[in-house]
Specification:
The complex is a heterodimer of chains A (248) and B (314).
Chain A lengths: L3 E11 L2 E12 L3 E5 L6 H9 L6 E6 L2 E2 L5 H6 L2 E3 L12 H11 L7 H14 L15 H14 L4 E5 L7 H18 L2 E5 L3 H7 L2 E6 L2 E6 L1 H6 L1 H16 L1
Parallel strand pairs in A: 3-8, 3-9, 6-7, 7-8
Antiparallel strand pairs in A: 1-2, 1-4, 4-5, 9-10
Helix pairs in contact in A: 3-4, 3-5, 4-5
Chain B lengths: L2 H7 L1 H16 L5 H27 L7 H18 L3 H23 L4 H20 L10 E2 L6 H23 L1 H12 L1 H6 L4 H27 L1 E2 L1 H4 L2 H14 L6 H19 L4 H15 L3 H9 L9
Antiparallel strand pairs in B: 1-2
Classes of the chains: A alpha/beta (248), B mainly alpha (314).
Chain lengths: 248, 314
């Protein structure tokens, strides 16, 4: 049984600002969906609403056929959906392995024994290539390694759908290629679904089978990567002619 | 599990257990004067472990912790004075009141963070004192005076049992699944929630222990004084002393609260006969020093500067 998470006609208001207006999006296990849009268009807000960090002002979030908006974040994680933070938030005083162990102990994987959770954590660290730094304090990791740890922690919760907030941002071209290769490898290995918020166009177009574009809280386009980059709305709002030319 | 492996897996726990066993065996032969000092030291340690459950393990600094001591003390005075309960049963009543109050206060106050939590708990302590002042059954602001015997050995073994349970519980919650969750909450509560940690429940869980033991210690304290009075029972300086002990000893550690209790109790007791109140100058300087120079406290400093102790003390 694969699971699906969907935001249905979601509105989110912060005081006088309407951050999301009538946005619908869905991701199934095994599927990678890209979510793009200019700065401040509401991408992170949408992720927060789906992860239970924020409540929608109107609309629903449906996970596996059941409404989950209004549930606290940890209950959503329990049901198999985990989110990463745009700026990684590792537990700085804990080792890399302990960081991942917390995720294994409290996620949807339902393991209660610390020893078994540590074993699971080591497997995840292996998978994402951080096994060499298992005993390093998270505070000593570089920003790029912290991003990888953030990704690893989300996986270690046992999540079947990941909500990934700009995990490819700020990488050099070489690092980006490596990160995309790693992501694809891990995704094929585990088969999770992912909603990927991203600014880095080559990354999002490579890994996504479906792309949704939002601007000022509104969904303005959706489709395959090649359809989306040819969409006149998208070109006008966000991509600019150069990227559109590159895609065609 | 063979004994050697157990000993190696938790040397601090066994060290503390050994210390307590020595005290228990020595008990009947301890001179009365030393015994009364030890009772007070163990009482301080018990209060430190109580504070450690919440401030040490989650980083939530409770300024109003004396509220649990004070209400525990009054619960003891009430059931012993009015219903003629045995003082030991009164200790259980004090613990129960501390537990229930912690669940009530915690389920609201733990929604606040940082200084807001500190203020919320502080207000409960002030409010509780003022409420108790006007309750006729609790002495109408005059306190409850009881004439009970001088039983240092009973007091000693009572606080010994309370402290023993606290040490064991501290070990239990700092290891295994709960320990990972608490460390995650202390480090970054929102990130912990994003990994599935039910932060609200875990915080309330340790806060409940914290209130329970402060209630029991508060009850024992007034048993040794044979009476409960509103001003000393709700003296905010107790809250500060509890914090001082945990900061000096090492926040969230297993051994730290005991070391912090010694560090606070010695000046406290010395200045009692020399210059009352001067102990707070010494304690204040100690807290400032530790907060600025070694925020991990004595235990943290030992782990940092004495490599051989790193794997031993916690």
């Amino acid at each position: 049984m694969t699971i699906t998470i969907a935001a249905v006609e979601v509105h989110k208001r912060f005081g006088g600002v309407l951050a999301l207006r009538d946005v619908s999006i869905s991701v199934a296990e095994g599927q990678v969906v890209g979510l793009i849009g200019p700065n401040g268009s509401g991408k992170s807000t949408l992720l927060n609403v789906m992860a239970g960090v924020e409540r929608p002002t109107a609309g629903r979030v449906v996970l596996d056929g059941k409404r989950v908006d209004g549930l606290p974040a940890h209950r959503i994680v329990e049901r198999g959906v985990a989110k990463t933070h745009q700026i990684p938030r590792p537990f700085l005083g804990m080792t890399t392995e302990d960081n991942v162990t917390v995720a294994a102990l409290y996620g949807s994987w339902k393991v209660r024994d610390a020893g078994a959770a540590r074993e699971q954590a080591r497997k995840v660290l292996n998978l994402i290539g951080l096994d060499g730094q298992a005993d390093a304090l998270a505070a000593s990791l570089t920003v790029q390694t912290r991003k990888r740890l953030e990704f690893g922690r989300a996986i270690a919760t046992g999540a079947r759908i990941l909500l990934l907030d700009e995990i490819f941002a700020g990488l050099s071209p070489d690092e980006l290629r490596e990160a995309i290769r790693l992501f694809t490898h891990v995704q094929e290995e585990i088969g999770f679904g992912a909603l990927v918020v991203e600014h880095v166009m080559p990354a999002v177009l490579t890994i996504s089978e479906h792309v949704v574009v939002i601007e000022e809280g509104r969904k303005i386009a959706a489709g395959t990567p090649s359809e989306v980059v040819r969409d006149p709305n998208v070109i006008e709002a966000y991509l600019g002619t150069e990227a559109a030319r590159a895609a065609t | 599990m063979n004994f050697g492996r157990l000993l190696r897996s938790a040397p601090t726990l066994w060290g503390l257990a050994g210390f307590l066993v020595v005290l228990a065996v020595w008990g009947p032969w301890i001179p009365t004067f030393v015994l009364t000092l030890l009772i007070n030291l163990l009482l301080f340690a018990s209060l430190a472990y109580s504070m450690n459950f919440i401030a040490g393990l989650t980083g939530y600094v409770s300024f109003g912790h004396v509220v649990f001591m004070g209400t525990g003390a009054y619960a003891w005075g009430y059931v012993v004075g009015t219903f003629g309960w045995h003082p030991l049963a009164g200790i259980v009543a004090g613990a129960a009141v501390g537990l229930v109050l912690a669940l009530g206060i915690g389920s609201v106050a733990l929604r606040f963070r940082g200084v807001y939590f500190a203020i919320a708990t502080l207000v409960t302590a002030l409010a509780a004192r003022n409420i108790i002042l006007v309750i006729p059954a609790l002495g109408d602001g005059q306190g409850i005076i009881l004439n009970l015997g001088f039983e240092p050995l009973t007091w000693f073994y009572t606080i010994w049992v309370i402290l023993g349970i606290q040490v064991g519980l501290t070990y239990w919650v700092t290891h295994g699944r709960i320990g990972y969750g608490l460390r995650a909450i202390k480090s970054d509560e929102d990130a912990a929630k994003a990994l599935g940690v039910d932060a609200a429940r875990l915080k309330l869980f340790v806060f409940a222990f914290s209130g329970l033991f402060a209630g029991a210690a508060g009850a024992l304290n007034v048993w040794t004084l044979s009476g409960v009075f509103p001003e000393p029972a709700f003296d905010l300086l107790f809250s500060l002393q509890m914090l001082a002990m945990v900061i000096i000893g090492g926040m969230g550690t297993l051994l730290g609260p005991l070391l912090g209790a010694v560090a606070v109790y010695l000046p406290h007791n010395y200045f009692l006969t020399v210059a009352v109140g001067a102990e707070f100058i010494v304690i204040g300087i100690l807290v400032t020093f530790f907060a600025l120079v070694v925020p991990q406290g004595i235990v943290g400093a030992l782990r940092r500067y004495v490599p051989t102790l790193r794997g031993i003390i916690e």
